[in-house]
Design a protein that fits this description.
flat, mainly alpha, 2 strands
């Protein structure tokens, strides 16, 4: 007897999903976590070799801004151990980023048994789009948002002599660059929420006005400056990403997939 077709798969696929027990899932999760940690450790070791070059790239925006205002570009520290801790921190974060494709592959490998075979084809787009969106967000922050914020802050406080510590500067840098990198992952979050039917494109469009309000609230929290211009610079790509996410939700939502499957028959 042939397998009965369903909107999201076949009965045979359903039996495959239930073949792994709870302990099997825990063992699989343990293996995935161990491999992810090992990859991060490897990335950390590689990045620590280049820690001075990485920090040079991080401090480049503040050096350019201070130079344009005829100020000293030398950052300072208040504790002898601060530079060592700072190098460890940036090496770890850079190592996590370097290992992120492998870690994401482990994440996908863990959740893929819960998907149907027709849905597992998303693995390549998932890997490429996740890393690509994060890099795009970080690059947008590094090249546009962060310099604008630094320029505003330095210009606003030009009557004072800056004494910027390396810890405070790196913390601000990571907050903005990594923050926008995470924000750019919005379509990926919507992808999974829509894939499992938790949200729909119709719901997202219906609540668009409230989403805009929420986006500006988030932008006001993330931006380090109180001016409207920088808040709008943060909010603009988030609005574009939200509209893009509506399209993503339309493509992967179960109702839309069912309609496409019925039309193709």
């Amino acid at each position: 007897m042939e397998d009965t077709a369903t909107p999201t798969g076949t009965l045979k696929e359903r039996s495959e999903l239930a073949s792994m027990g709870f302990l099997d899932h825990l063992e699989e999760l343990r293996k995935r976590i161990i491999w992810s940690i090992l990859s991060i450790v490897g990335g950390f070791c590689v990045c620590y070799i280049w820690h001075e070059r990485i920090f040079g790239w991080i401090q480049k925006p503040i050096v350019q801004i201070l130079s344009s205002h005829k100020m000293s570009t030398q950052l300072v520290y208040t504790n002898p151990i601060d530079p060592f801790n700072m190098y460890l921190k940036i090496s770890l974060i850079a190592g996590i980023f370097m290992a992120s494709p492998f870690v994401l592959y482990q994440v996908w490998g863990f959740i893929s048994p819960g998907l149907y075979k027709s849905e597992r084809r998303y693995v390549a787009p998932f890997m490429v789009s996740t890393v690509g969106l994060f890099v795009a967000g970080g690059y947008f922050a590094y090249r546009i948002v962060y310099p604008q914020a630094l320029s505003f802050l330095v210009e606003f406080s030009r009557q004072f002599t800056p004494m910027i510590t390396i810890n405070e500067y790196v913390e601000l840098f990571m907050t903005i660059v990594l923050g926008l990198g995470v924000v750019f992952e919005m379509p990926i979050l919507v992808f999974f929420l829509a894939l499992f039917g938790l949200i729909s494109p119709r719901w997202m469009w219906k609540n668009f006005r409230y989403s805009i309000l929420g986006i500006f609230v988030v932008a006001a929290i993330i931006t380090p400056t109180p001016d409207i211009m920088n808040m709008c610079i943060f909010a603009a790509p988030m609005i574009v990403l939200y509209l893009l996410s509506i399209g993503v939700a339309y493509l992967v939502h179960p109702k839309q997939r069912k309609k496409r499957e019925l039309n193709s028959q």
